[in-house]
Design a protein that fits this description.
51 residues; alpha+beta; three-stranded antiparallel beta sheet; 1 helix; tRNA(Ile)-lysidine synthetase
Length: 51
Amino acid sequence: GLTDKQIRGVDALVTGWHGQGGVAVGSSSPGERLFAGRRDGLLTLWREPVR
């Protein structure tokens, strides 16, 4: 599940969204970062490798 910090990051994105991109909300998986963002008006979660 999501941590409190991750939920707060998603909440900040949803309540304060002004057209910016997604927000990194961390991940429990080493080498990956979890992102939350809006795509076509929907809240979307996705993972990206840490570079």
